[in-house]
């Protein structure tokens, strides 16, 4: 009943988090490399340096040099949220956001908290609440690049808080690209997108 005539529809769920964009692309490259050469990935330090190297070669650190703006989330898709039952509203995504993470838990990627703890005034102004595992809400966070992601290592660091919602939907722009990278609960894949 959710299918729209003339559109390809993919539905899915996740336990912990879903991400799309550059972080999923780097994870996909790392997992592909590890499958091809498992003998090279027996040391945590080597794994981390390989991950960082792939982040550099994929343009995650040097966005303006290596990453076309057409791959930014806003250029790729409209993101719609369901905050109230049966009512979808479009989420404004800044043009600089290249990765979007939807959290069902207050942490991801080894315990990092991309939502952070918004101060009371800002949370009230933007209608945000503290994230809880059982609140029925997804926290939607955006990242510009790896430098932005590294701020999560700071005690009060966080991504760009975009919204909280019960459901999220991505409507991909016609012909924007032939594929995108996605990741659910740590498992990345290359998602083909129909050009029509």
What does this entry look like structurally?
The protein is α+β, with helices and mostly antiparallel strands and 196 residues long. The protein has one domain. The protein has six helices and nine strands, in the order E-H-H-H-H-E-E-E-H-E-H-E-E-E-E. Strands 6-5-4-1-8-9 form a six-stranded antiparallel β-sheet. A three-stranded antiparallel β-sheet has the order 3-2-7. A hairpin with a 2-residue loop joins strand 8 and strand 9 (187-192). Helix 1 crosses helix 2 (44-57). The chain is globular. The mean pLDDT is 79.
Brief descriptors of the model:
6 helices, ATP-dependent diacylglycerol kinase activity, three-stranded antiparallel sheet, 196 residues, six-stranded antiparallel sheet, ATP-binding, 27% strand, 9 strands, DGK, alpha+beta
């Amino acid at each position: 009943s959710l299918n729209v005539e003339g559109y390809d529809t993919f539905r899915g769920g996740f336990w912990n988090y879903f991400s799309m964009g550059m972080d999923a692309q780097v994870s996909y490259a790392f997992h592909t490399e590890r499958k091809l050469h498992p003998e090279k990935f027996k040391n945590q330090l080597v794994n981390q340096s390989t991950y960082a190297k792939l982040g550099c070669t994929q343009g995650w650190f040097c966005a303006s040099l290596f990453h076309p703006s057409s791959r930014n989330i806003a250029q790729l898709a409209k993101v719609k949220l369901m905050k109230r039952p049966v009512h979808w509203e479009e989420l404004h995504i800044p043009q600089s956001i290249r990765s979007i993470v939807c959290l069902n838990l207050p942490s991801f990627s080894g315990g990092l908290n991309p939502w952070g703890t918004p101060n009371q005034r800002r949370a009230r102004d933007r209608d945000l609440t503290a994230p809880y595992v059982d609140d029925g809400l997804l926290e939607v966070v955006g990242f510009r690049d790896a430098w932005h992601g590294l701020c999560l290592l700071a005690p009060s660091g966080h991504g760009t808080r975009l919204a909280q919602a019960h459901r999220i939907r991505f409507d991909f722009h016609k012909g924007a690209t032939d594929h995108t990278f996605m990741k659910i609960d740590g498992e990345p894949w290359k998602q083909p997108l129909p050009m029509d």
